[in-house]
Design goal:
2 copies of one chain form a homodimer. Chain A is about 75% helix and about 0% strand. In chain A, helix 1 (about 5-25) packs across helix 6, helix 4 packs antiparallel against helix 5 (about 80-95) and helix 5 (about 80-95) packs antiparallel against helix 8. Chain A is an all-alpha fold. The first copy, chain A, has 2 domains: about 1-50, Homeodomain-like (Arc Repressor Mutant, subunit A); about 60-185, Tetracycline Repressor, domain 2, CATH 1.10.357.10. Chain A has helices at about 5-25, 30-35, 40-50, 50-75, 80-95, 95-105, 110-115, 120-135, 145-165, 170-185. The first copy, chain A, binds a DNA duplex (30 and 30 nucleotides) through helix 1 and helix 3.
Amino acid sequence: MSDETMVRARTRRAILDAAVLTLSQNHGASLGDIASCAGVGRTTLHRYFADRSELTKALSKHVLERIETATVRAVLAEGPVPQALERLCQEYFELGDIMMFMFADPDVMGGPEWKEPTPSDHALLKLVERGHSDKSIDPEATPLWVQQVMWAMLFAAWQHTRENNVPKHQALSLCLRSLRKAIAA
Amino acid sequence: MSDETMVRARTRRAILDAAVLTLSQNHGASLGDIASCAGVGRTTLHRYFADRSELTKALSKHVLERIETATVRAVLAEGPVPQALERLCQEYFELGDIMMFMFADPDVMGGPEWKEPTPSDHALLKLVERGHSDKSIDPEATPLWVQQVMWAMLFAAWQHTRENNVPKHQALSLCLRSLRKAIAA
DNA sequence: CCATAGTGGAACAGAGGTGTTCCACTATGG
DNA sequence: CCATAGTGGAACACCTCTGTTCCACTATGG
């Protein structure tokens, strides 16, 4: 796994990134579309991922990893709860294509690793509980609901930039403001 | 168009409803899937909609109509702004499959009638402006952003019932509460 | 220089969806 | 009763995507 050549690692990464980008725009894209988006022959794609299901599996793992590292970077355990949640949103907002890809292609989130809570889920759970303790989060808002609302708001922000040609920073600003108010005590 | 037999009108409606239901769950469903979900032969489906693009077109129109009637029922011009928005959310929430279908199948929203603002869009625009006038809506929240957030919250609520087995009334209650707070002044 | 890793393209068979035609069946109003 | 509207299913050719095989090409380190 990790004893791959530099070249192979780079190609592998290029294919995964291209898959995210292509599928985020066109859910029904063919493997040929993905390959050419990655600047790679379809044959080469099959050398790295034998069939579509394997690509999907790797893609799922790839997305999870990106989310995990983004969550870690937000250091949710530190500072006031509202600010921590804001940092998390900013990190997730940066993921961009990854996010829209998740919404556009629900099949990828069908694996067993998406059913059970990830470390990210746990970190957010703890954060919300902390917010309940120090009265900074609406007691009616359960951790699961906060999570749903956060992703929905991020989706809204990206959609806002796409459809209404709003600059990213402005969309993010609106997103953070609305989310903060929505779940405030 | 309107001089259809009762039988044909019923079958046509059954196919459209089945298409919404099927495609909301499985974006890549085949025409055969849709036909059998409607309790109809694939041949019959082709009698009503020559090819897939015609079905998509009719589906787009169907969805728009459902949204329009829901908007009308919310009588946005009457009563306090927050309550009016709440009524709108409740009406949209009732659409259920229609909503999730829209998010699951962006292709349907690609037609020209989705680019330019619909009567529903206009009604919501006026409502938000009224909310700005009487200080009941956050002045930073533009009509377009309010719209994005509303749909995102509705999506979150439906997702919340699907994934977390939360009763619909509870999800709707959370949705209304969070939306109200998010865009309040 | 050359052995090897990495790649692209052509070609193939298989699977599944699509659109069409044709025929047999059922129900319903005149 | 029977003519007609409405339907379902089988069969068909067509298309696209898929997964695979095979061969020729390029680059790079020893």
